[in-house]
Structures are given as structure tokens and as C-alpha cells.
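Dear support,

Our group has been running a series of protein-ligand predictions, and this particular one with 5,10-methenyl-6,7,8-trihydrofolic acid is the one our PI (initials K.S.) wants archived with full inputs and outputs. We had some confusion internally about which version of the output was final, so please treat the block below as the authoritative record. The input we submitted was:
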Amino acid sequence: MSLADEIFVNMCRDILENGTSTEGEKVRPHWEDGSKAYTIKKFGVVNRYDLSKEFPIMTLRRTALKSATDEMLWIWQRKSNNIKDLNSHIWDEWADEDGSIGKAYGYQMGVKHQYKEGRMDQVDRVIYDLKNNPFSRRIMTNIYVHQDLHEMNLYPCAYSVTFNVTQKKGADRLTLNAILNQRSQDVLTANNWNVVQYAVLIHMLAQVCDMEAGELVHVIADAHIYDRHVPMVRELIKRTPYPAPAFDLNPEVKDFYQFTRDDVRVENYVTGEQIRDIPVAI
Ligand SMILES: Nc1nc(=O)c2c([nH]1)NC[C@@H]1CN(c3ccc(C(=O)N[C@@H](CCC(=O)O)C(=O)O)cc3)CN21
Ligand SMILES: O=c1ccn([C@H]2C[C@H](O)[C@@H](COP(=O)(O)O)O2)c(=O)[nH]1
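Confirmed final output from the archive:
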């Protein structure tokens, strides 16, 4: 069983057994047919993934690693808020007629800010600090920008990352760790999707800064299973898991802006059957 499967199964069991239902509450999301999308939720879930041990991809069903990487690069590298720059259709429901999702995600990553060292956006600020001041405790991004919330079609869910570098005893290279803060998580649709995205981001940043990938700590405020997903999750967590596949990042790339989704690969990725047509609450 991959470590990611174990964490996923335990989290889902905990939500189903100890979570609270939002049924009857005034909830925002709805299904395609207009009915309210209620959830079973657990507040304050924290999951830790040690990337030096294993790549945290689930095997119970296939996680679309290349699509997930592409969305992460859309935000962190292309810094785009337009679905025309994205190779999947996962954001279509939240885009306007021009393809924009408003001042969310990639838009915020591309905004330049004045720092003592010059004008930079948040991604370049992180890379600058990792290279020049790796032991800083101030290396973080935040895209939950209150002044722009009214111009976002969906508020950022995974909204902040804090990077932290450690010098492990006896190790040649520094270790790059990160905490991903997420205010809201649709566990079936996007939990492992988000986890692999930020695992890939840590691997990429570590490589371009000549560090090792360390831990990803995923802090989720509201971890929920939507009502229509409950039978799917119950079936999923009963399945037989497989060992984690080997993860491979093209070692030639030394500039974060040169990575493409094709530089990311998993070998021997054996999984359970895909769950077709998971409905996504809007
Ligand atoms: N309710 C809800 N849940 C979410 O997870 C979510 C939103 N809304 N709104 C915005 C984005 C869109 N997200 C999504 C939506 C769909 C998939 C999805 O269907 N993934 C497929 C593969 C997609 C592909 O290959 O391109 C999968 O099997 O993982 C993933 C993330 C995450 N976010
Ligand atoms: O990367 C993402 C983006 C979105 N989600 C989910 C979490 C929620 O189910 C919805 C957003 O609804 P809110 O009412 O704004 O919380 O999207 C995710 O899990 N991961």
C-alpha cells in the first residue's frame, strides 16, 4: 500500500465515522441539476508526506499526474488565470466568456511586489530566498488577497505555502520542506490531486535550488466528502492498494520556468479502476 493510500483511507474513515453533516445548513455549492451539495466534513485535518521516502500518489484509483502538474504549472509557472492556457477542462465551469477565472490563483502569483531586493512576484521571491537566504523563516506565498476576492470566480482553496529548509546531519545537500495551507478540500475529487501537485512543486524547486525534497505537510481546515461522493468513497477505500510507483523528474532541468508536464513521470504505476464521471459540485 502506498503511504498516500494509507493516509487517504484513514482520513476518509475518520470523516465518515466522526465527521459532521452539513445537511440543512445554508451551503454555497450545488450540483449541476441545481440541488444543494451537502458534505460530511472534518475540521482541521493534517497529513504529512515524506517525499524522501515515497512519492505520495494514490493507487486505489489513478491520479492524473500530468494534468495535475499542468494545473500547478498554470498557477506557479505560467501564472495564468485563463483556461485557454490550461490543458484540461477542470476550470471551465468557473471561467467567464473570455476564459478568465478572475483575479484568482495564477493571477495573484504573477503580481509583482516591491521588496528591499527589488520588484518580484511571489514565485520569484520564493526562488530568490531559497537560493540566497535558505534558512529564512519568511519564505511563503499567499494568494488569499482580500482586496481582490470580489473579482475571483472561486476563492482560492489551496491558498498559502510556507517553505522551510533544514540541514540534516551528515547530508550533503539541504532539505526543502513545505506546508500547504488549504481552507477547503473536496476529498474525493481533489485531495490526492492537490497532494501530488505540491509534491511535484517541492521536487521541482528542490532540483533547481540543488536541494533534496523533504516533507509536505498538508493542513486542511474543512476536509469534506460531498453527499453524492459518499458511496464512491466507501467503495474506493475497500479496494486493494498497490505499492507506490517510482517518481522521476527530468534531472536536466535547472530552471523552474523550463519544466513542462512531460518532465514528470511515474514508473510502474499500478492502480485500481478509475471511477468514471465523478460529479463536481459547482
Ligand atoms: N467542488 C469542487 N471540487 C474541486 O476539487 C474543485 C472545484 N470544485 N473547483 C475548482 C477546481 C477544479 N478541480 C478539479 C476538478 C476536476 C478534477 C478531475 O476531474 N480530475 C480528473 C482528471 C482530469 C484530467 O485528466 O484532466 C481525475 O480523474 O482526477 C480535478 C480537479 C479542483 N477544484
Ligand atoms: O484545488 C482545489 C480547488 C477547489 N477545491 C474544492 C474545495 C471545495 O469543495 C470547493 C470550493 O468551494 P468553497 O465553497 O469555496 O470552499 O472546491 C479543492 O478541493 N481543491
